[in-house]
What does this fold into?
Amino acid sequence: MKKISVISGGASGLGFEIASLLVRSGKNVVILGRNNEKLVRASYNLKQMATDNYIESVICNIGNECDIKKLGDHLVRNHLSTEYLFNNAGMGLFVKADALTSSMVDKVFEANVKGMILLTSEILRLTPKEEELTIVNIMSTSALVGRAEETIYCAAKWGARGFTEALRTELKGTKRNIIAIYPGGMRTDFWNIPGQIRDLTAFMDPLLVAEKIVNAVLLSDKILVTDITINRR
It folds into this structure.
């Protein structure tokens, strides 16, 4: 079995920076995303950084159970075993509470909670109990504090945090490590929302955030890291 790191939302932004650091550390990487063009470009760039690493991109909507099962079958068929899972994919929504619709709720919860749950469940199912597995749930500081015009986004992130805490309790005493990450705002495509313009000048560089995350995760065999909050100065 070839050991891999799986990164959802790995084609751009923080996910891509995490993937690039893992590749440079000699890790085999599988990035997931829904946009084939972005995935192909990201995979090509990662292969330029690699030596003999295994690099692959897989089209996968993590909020879709059929896609998740196809991913699981692909991993089994290719003898790939996950040692690090980075639940990084997500989407934002920043509107007033009286403007919310059912469609908005579904999209935000699928991207930020449902997808995390489905992907984590599949990886847990496939990973032999005797093998180490580190699950890194990347959320947001919006999972720690309520914010105006982020009601549904905060609700989704608080749900992801609840899942993370309960999962940690359920898996205590096993070879599964759960790391919760709460980053603040970064300069990424996350903020490219139609009709909404934000000044990202003071926001964090995703590469610097990725460095903090990857350094902590790769040290987890020597020290136990559980929760990290990353904010700009």
